[in-house]
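lol ok so funny story. i was supposed to be doing the assay writeup but got distracted and ended up predicting the structure for this chain instead. priorities right. anyway since i did it might as well share w the group, maybe its usefull for someone
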Amino acid sequence: MNEDNHDTPGTESEPRLVYLRFRRVFGDGASRSSDARKRSRKKPGASVPFSTGRDPQSLSSVVDALTAQLGWNSPLAKSELLASWAELAGAETAEHSTPVGIEDGILSVRCDSTAWATQLRLMRSVVLGQISTRYPDAGITQVRFVGPNVPSWKRGPRSIPGRGPRDTYG
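and the output, tada:
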């Protein structure tokens, strides 16, 4: 006796019954053209002249909506902040300081001298207030002002391993 139901007349397999039921409920998709399927999905009256959403929009509003939809607001605000540092900090301050980068909400600014770094540290709240007002999407929470790189006496041709001359005192 054959256990397979495919060969027995009058009994159909369960997958075939499901397929036939779906075909009955949803119709035969192969019998319609792709244009007919697209037309059946359109809502009647969806494309009416002078309806809402059909007015021309400015390019800036379209680009703003696109950047918000794609989540590009924060990177764009950060790059605008770095590019407009001279306008943000002032011309004289920008001559002596350069934004280095943004990491974890901290803007790092390299200064020409320790005096400029100290002066900008005193003005930190003003600079941070301007940044948060102009570029709120940048997510800047702190500003770090760093002085110039100073030479290290720990390395070089005249450095001595160990404690150096201090070990002769005791």
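DSSP finds eight helices and three strands in the chain. Residues 14-26 form the longest helix (13 residues).
back to the writeup now i swear
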